[in-house]
Amino acid sequence: MRTLGEFCLLAAFVGAGFSAFGCVVGTWRGHRLVRTAGLMAGVISVAALSIVVGALAWALYTKDFSFAYVAQYSSKLLPSHYSLSALWVGQAGSLLLWAFVLGVIALVCRFKPRRETSAMRDPTFGVLMGYLAFLIVVIVFAADPMDASLAAPHDGAGLSPLLQHPAMLIHPPIVFLGYALWTVPFAMACVALVSGRADAGWIREARPWALVAWTVLGVGILLGADWAYEELGWGGYWSWDPVENGSLLPWLTGTALIHGMMAWQFAGVLKKTAFSLALVTFGLCNFATFLTRSGVFSSVHAFSKSPIGWLFLALMAVLLIGGAVILLVRRWLLAAQGGAARSILCRESLVLVSIVSLLLLTAVVVTGTCSTALSTLFSDKPIVVGPAFYNNVLIPTGLTLLLTTAMAPLLRWKVGPSQGQNRWLMGSACAGGVTAILTAVMVSYHPLALAAAGIAVGAVVALAGALILDGQQRHPARPVWGVVTALRCGRGQYAGFLIHLGLVSVALGIVGSSLGHREQEFVMTQGQTVAWAGRDVRLMRRNQRDLADRIVAEAELEIARGGRVEATLVPAQHFHRLQQEWTTEVAIQSTWGGDFYTILHSGTADGQVSLTFVENPMMRWLWLGGGIIVAGALIRLWPQRLHDGNAALAAADGEDELAEETARSVVTRPHWRKIRSLHSAGDP
Amino acid sequence: MSPGVKLAGGLVVVVGVTTYMAYVGASSSWQYYVTVDECLAEPAKLEGNRVRVSGGVAAGSLQIAADRSRATFCLQGRSARLNVVCDGAVPDNLKENMDVVVEGRLAPGGLLRGDKVLTRCASKYESAAADSSSASSTGKKSP
């Protein structure tokens, strides 16, 4: 099995390398045969990689300890699902998974059915295969998952107890999927820049991929946050840890990229910014890998010491320098064509402000994460900055982003708001002001709480106003039907606004849980009740259970409010026999008001137990925001029918590119392709 | 005033406020990041300051309170040892012979009063063999 795996790994490397060469050179020189051979080699490479992944997964499932990787990360008593999850726990396995996912994405990107052919497809595939070849080189020479154990042990070392958590099954692969997906917009940007086809055509191709990558990486980050929230000692859902920061960076620049692409598509501005952001976002995915795998940074999530991280850092440096040179050479292609904005209150202004805020936040996170290295330039001893550095910057940039998010639905591209939109802008500002006052009276005087609550309500009112105005414009006599039509025809646009509401919900969760957090320690005896945070908590009993792989010690707590029992929580301590290690398993009661978080520390022979109770207000809003973002992205990406005449109205406002295309298809159907290609050349 | 000038003014405000807030945050939260040997080479310079010290938990030195609210241990450097008293939640996987980072203040007499211990995620991306071979003899007590 291992020999087959080694052979397939080499075949995958050769295939990916030849595919990159064949697709790029074949397209450049116009050799169809070379291009086709390159495509075939790419398919063979991905097929070979899938065999390697299958072989490793099978070895993990059957606990074949002749594989050094299996012996290192699995054990006989480890449940099968965690044993399979070990595929992405180790250095070698996680790189292999990343490479495999990238290969599949490359195939989907190249062979996905389209309405029209694009000259970008083959060279884009070639660039993706080039990156795949780089990953496989790293795997073959620095982290081979097919390595043999020197002598197959009787049992493996097992998976770290901290990693035996349901989130381990989905969080890492989703983050790797996010990183792999960001390769596609990067590859398309490279091809567009190098080939001189730097028109809106590449945006139409790349924007859906960017949105998928953004959503997937965002979900991965939130799943990681949820895991860290439940794992004691990881600093809560966000602790500005270098590894956490590493995954956040491409997400921030990716957010800026998506908005930069829209500004290009609808206002003909920010072209160089969009290209730069595509390169930087992919570069930051490699930087995140450097943070995780170099061993240079102190992190609770990864402390490896490996030369692999430096390879990714070098690749990032090459990409950024090369990208800057190409952008400089091709700058004449990227002149703004939209003309100056006629009002400051237009969407491209908001996009610019958002991009600047996001890039400021990115710069601060990079500076803080690398402060140890940067500080040696002016200090004899390395200096690190604490969470206050990041949090202080998050306040102005976050509030600016929330404000632009709230205003966006009531603004238009290129021109100022209409009279109706102005009225609704005033209305949403008033609603936000009233909410802030009510928050001050009823909840908290903290300026951050007032601002977040006010902007959140303002955002909801602004979106409702935009929808009503849109409906009135479509069907003045039947506004309800008009709203339905607006939602149907402007689906992409309203899905985007739904994603904005998701972000507002995430912001509410962050603000609420940060400002309202409180905790207290208690020592309780069986049957004792303590009153805390509006709840009566009674220690029902203590249990101890002996399982095959662990000893479980737990405390059963009855949570009551106003005399009514609401929940029973069972915080526990687990002793893992193989690793001789204890883990703390918290228990949480989650409501819309907040989380009641319980931690069991220890017990004594006389029946007492030591517990900590924590209150985290509004945590559920944070996770709800994640759900809304995913829902919005799915609605946005769902294929749209191009046969609705009502879309012409949306197109008249220039609000939705799909509707715009729809309108064109309705008016000029016989020459649709021709007009579309002219449109691409004329940008936008 | 043209829209472009107004926009530039707004951006200058955002950049200015953000830079100021970053400066305030850095001023209030920075700390030296040193090894045990560097820390003990110039203790007078670091005394009273917040520091982040990296080193290994010396074998036979780890003591964890029954309620896991305090840990005492020796942080081993290349040629020196630093005594650490750490108050606050003790990480589940804190063991002897493992590399850790302790945040806290350096007290006179070469004692580090820590409030946070960062441990490494044992089996992620590297072998757990080194860690698992040295399980703590002073681990927590079962409830």
Explain briefly what this protein structure is:
Chain A is an alpha+beta fold and 684 residues long. Chain A has helices at residues 2-29, 32-61, 68-73, 80-85, 91-111, 121-142, 166-195, 200-230, 242-267, 271-293, 308-329, 347-369, 371-375, 387-407, 419-442, 447-474, 479-489, 491-515, 619-637, 647-653, 657-667, 672-682; strands at residues 383-384, 518-525, 529-532, 535-546, 550-561, 564-569, 572-576, 581-585, 587-590, 594-603, 608-617.
Question: What this model shows, in words?
Answer:
The complex is a heterodimer of chains A (684) and B (143). Chain A is of the alpha+beta class and 684 residues long. Chain A has four domains: 1-159, Four Helix Bundle (Hemerythrin (Met), subunit A); 160-332 and 354-366; 518-620, no CATH class; 640-684, no CATH class. Helix content of chain A is 63%, strand content 11%. Chain A has helices at residues 2-29, 32-61, 68-73, 80-85, 91-111, 121-142, 166-195, 200-230, 242-267, 271-293, 308-329, 347-369, 371-375, 387-407, 419-442, 447-474, 479-489, 491-515, 619-637, 647-653, 657-667, 672-682, and strands at 383-384, 518-525, 529-532, 535-546, 550-561, 564-569, 572-576, 581-585, 587-590, 594-603, 608-617. In chain A, the strands form two sheets. In chain A, strands 3, 4, 5, 6, 7 and 8 form a six-stranded antiparallel sheet that branches. A four-stranded antiparallel sheet of chain A has the order 2-11-10-9, covered by helices on one side. In chain A, strand 4 (535-546) and strand 5 form a beta hairpin. Chain A is globular, with a radius of gyration of 27 Å. Chain B has four helices and seven strands. The termini of chain B are far apart. Chain B has a five-stranded mixed β-barrel. Chain B is elongated and about 70 Å long. Classes of the chains: A alpha+beta (684), B alpha+beta (143). Chains A and B meet through helix 12, strand 1, helix 14, strand 5 and strand 8 of A and helix 1 and strand 1 of B. Strand 1 (383-384) of chain A pairs antiparallel with strand 1 of chain B, so a sheet runs across the interface.
